[in-house]
Amino acid sequence: MALEIAYIQEKLNQKFGNNVLNFEMSRDIFSFEATPNLIREVIRFLKEEESLNFHFLTDLAGIHFPDNDDEHQFSVVYQLHNWVENVRIRVKTYLPENPQIDTISDLFLCANWMEREAWDFYGIKFEGHPQLKRILNMDEMVSHPMRKEFPMEDSGRTDKDDRFFGRTQING
Amino acid sequence: MMSDLLLPPEHRYAKIIEQTRNDDGSELSILNLGPTHPATHGIFQNILLMDGERILDAEPTIGYIHRAFEKIAENRPFYQINVLTDRMNYCSSPINNMAWWITVEKLLEIEVPKRAQYLRVIVMELARIADHLICNSILGVDTGAYTGFLYVFQFREKIYEIYEEICGARLTTNMGRIGGFEREWSDEAFKKLDTFLIDFPIAWKEFENLFERNRIFIDRTVDVGSISAEKAMQYGFTGPNLRAAGIDYDVRKAQPYSSYEDFEFDVPVGKSGDTYDRFCVRNAEVWESLNIIKQALAKLPKGPIHADVPDYYLPPKEDVYNNMESLIYHFKIVMGEVPVPVAEIYHAVEGGNGELGFYLITDGSRTPYRLKMRRPCYIYYQAYTEMIKGGMLSDAIVILSSLNVIAGELDA
Amino acid sequence: MSDSKINMVAPPEGVVGEGFFATKLNDVVGMARANSLWPLPFATSCCGIEFMATMASHYDLARFGSERVSFSPRQADMLMVMGTISKKMAPILRQVYEQMAEPRWVIAVGACASSGGVFDTYSVLQGIDKVIPVDVYVPGCPPRPEQIVDGVMQLQELVRNESVRRRNSPEYKELLASYNL
User: Fold this and answer.
1) Percent of chain B with pLDDT over 90
2) Same structural domain for residues B31 and B91?
3) Distance between CA atoms of residues B104 and B64, nearest Å
4) Which residue stretches of chain C have pLDDT < 50?
5) Complex ipTM, two decimals?
6) Which of C87, C120, C122, C124 is best to mutate for the A interface (most A CBs within 10 A)?
7) What domains are there in chain C, each with its CATH number?
8) Do residues C131 and C176 touch, judged by C-beta distance below 8 A?
């Protein structure tokens, strides 16, 4: 039996009620939002429920939205895939400032480094992660570089002439 | 300065060494494998806790070539991101380029003409051959057989010549545009492709014969670094490493893109997920890629080389100098002021190492809001620690080569 | 039997006589060093693949004397840094350079090693000459193997004409001091 989008939505609503919301077909991937305190249960349900069987974690990404309201400053997006029925699904949660969320690295072993990357770049803390430390940047780094306020270029350079880069007093 | 790089005494391995002592009085030891090591292809470090020649534990450190692609992508319009995608898996850069263009076309809902799609398939399969060529010949070098590498690398030069005819560059190709290719492929390119399709299978057959039933190679690679299908799936394996473990998941078959559904090809699958299986799966994939290229050349339709989207595709230079409209389009495209919808797209292709995905969030401005690249090497390298535990040091090197970890893709 | 197509290295200027050849020590030492530069390939990314192509049979670098590629710093003459060096990697590059024995030369292959290249970011070292002194810069992204060979040939010119006393001269010591070496 093919896995229908309506069926997934129904099962999720049945189990989690109001904590799963904003169901939509984002182009060709079905995506929804879940509240952060229940995200681990939602993902466990998606993985272990026999009829859903989303057994593969494709990706885990962190995002920073400095322009949103306080409850929606950061976001973690999980993309899962069911190879048998060939269905993808996207689960999003939104987190406030000083983001903290449960880890899923015991459900999916590959989430280990994905969560470390999200910590390294955004400062999203994953409770229960076995080794949450920086992975791609230098260990001594203090800030979280992918946040929007962090500059891309190295600010310590003295040899760049701003005139050649079109930077003036006005446009910074 | 130099002492900063030595192991601090409070490191957990130091404690384990103090506490454990073998029956015959020997101690455990620490070996630092990398970052600069002739046999690790790329810069990543593993601190190994060893009992003689046997590895008990490993602690990987990566990020030695972190170039912040995702941060750069938030500051560049779409054309300039293509340059970055080249440098991820640089052994097969056309695949990354085409993956990016297909993602952007999905975002902008552009339909690419059939000819361009078939040509994209040809160049992607050529890149896949180039990638597997390097991986397998370097695996040969690591087990001691240097001849295979020298012989087969000559054909990588032939592939470079074909890339040069198409786009002008050898390695980091920066190929293609939104909607197709930048120019029609010259006759010289097709001639070189035909010669390649005649000469290469002979050489590849010789390369296979050199290794596949070679007693020494079999002893070095069978049952080395095996991983079960269940574990491989848990660790997020995709691509040849997963198929060697027994699961036939291939993005080209599961969610075909760029007309892959028009071609008939098999997906080779291994049994035990050890190094020998990974080697053989890659060999078989090269044969399948040659098959696909032949089918694509035979069925290549005539038609335009790019989609008719003047908003996104640079007009030809004669028009830019003579036609006001083309001049305006040219200016807008180069400045990046193109109409971009607000959307979230995820698109994956079958890269040389597995599912290469781009998760793109746009907010209507000229640069993406967030671009996350799902890099297969980063995800399956987590399993390396488990695969080498209990094995010998030389097995660890062979396993690393067979996994085809490319540092550019690992760190991005 | 000599093949007229093979180029031999020309002998230095000197006085030839019955059973002797008198020339300057500088010239002989320069010639010997220039034609036996053993590289240490510090390959990090894409330029490393072009280096592999340079060492392979088509663009053979071994004909210029670089037959033995040494991964041990103590036994290498020239350090070829190929690829992006990030700030995390810079101390390691420095340690490798410190471990090399005199005389040593450095070639920065590629745009990333010369100046940071495309990657003007917080994590990439904007040129290896921030941490070690460089003799030859080979630009390109990646440079063609012919360009890498040209870089090696330029280095050979440098090496051939270098004074034997250069390493003890005050200018050299000043150069090293400016890098805290």
Assistant:
1) 45
2) no
3) 30
4) none
5) 0.90
6) C122
7) 39-148 (3.40.50.12280)
8) no
